[in-house]
């Protein structure tokens, strides 16, 4: 089973964790719980008429955990590439991963330390799947945009990263499309 570590628990990180864990990958999310969403109120998130950011985060975390992701509070202080994948350091402990999804908002230090390419606008350079120049490392949300930050865009970035990881793991393009029968 592929091991995915998601760094950051805002909309991008939670979305990546949701899609990856829902589809059978071993997902560990690490977060400091300092997302800007705590100070937001959502009026512009598709499907939500009006919701406080804290309430949204609580419900999203519950949903993600319900699909089997392991959510942990802690600051990731390092990510290193190894022959087998990546070693992520959190609170002095190390965790191994095959894939890393960075969802740290405007904090781009982990991407820089990994050697990810940056654009002329000093944001992490990614392709349409959110993969960086470092294979199997993904950057999402405010990490890849100069000023165009929005919760639903970030969530889409996280979903794109997870779907690309799932495509790599399955060896073909993967589509996460549920039907009413899936809810039964």
What is the helix/strand order?
Answer: EHEEEHEEEEEHEHH
Which blocks of ≥5 consecutive residues have pLDDT under 50?
none
Q: Largest sheet, order of strands side by side? A: 5-2-1-9-10
CA distance, first residue to last residue: 26 Å
Defining traits:
five-stranded parallel β-sheet; three-stranded antiparallel β-sheet; 5 helices; 184 residues
Description:
With 184 residues, the chain is an alpha/beta fold. Helix content is 30%, strand content 23%. It is built from 5 helices and 10 strands. It has helices at 11-22, 53-66, 109-114, 151-170, 180-183; strands at residues 3-7, 26-31, 41-42, 51-52, 70-73, 76-81, 86-90, 93-97, 99-102, 137-139. The strands form 3 sheets. Strands 5-2-1-9-10 form a 5-stranded parallel sheet, with helices on one face. A 3-stranded antiparallel sheet has the order 6-7-8. A two-stranded antiparallel ribbon has the order 3-4. The longest helix has 20 residues, at 151-170. It is globular, with a radius of gyration of 15 Å.
Brief overview:
This protein is α/β, with parallel strands linked by helices.
Topology, please?
Elements: E1 3-7, H1 11-22, E2 26-31, E3 41-42, E4 51-52, H2 53-66, E5 70-73, E6 76-81, E7 86-90, E8 93-97, E9 99-102, H3 109-114, E10 137-139, H4 151-170, H5 180-183
Parallel strand pairs: 1-2, 1-9, 2-5, 9-10
Antiparallel strand pairs: 3-4, 6-7, 7-8
Helix pairs in contact: 1-2, 1-4
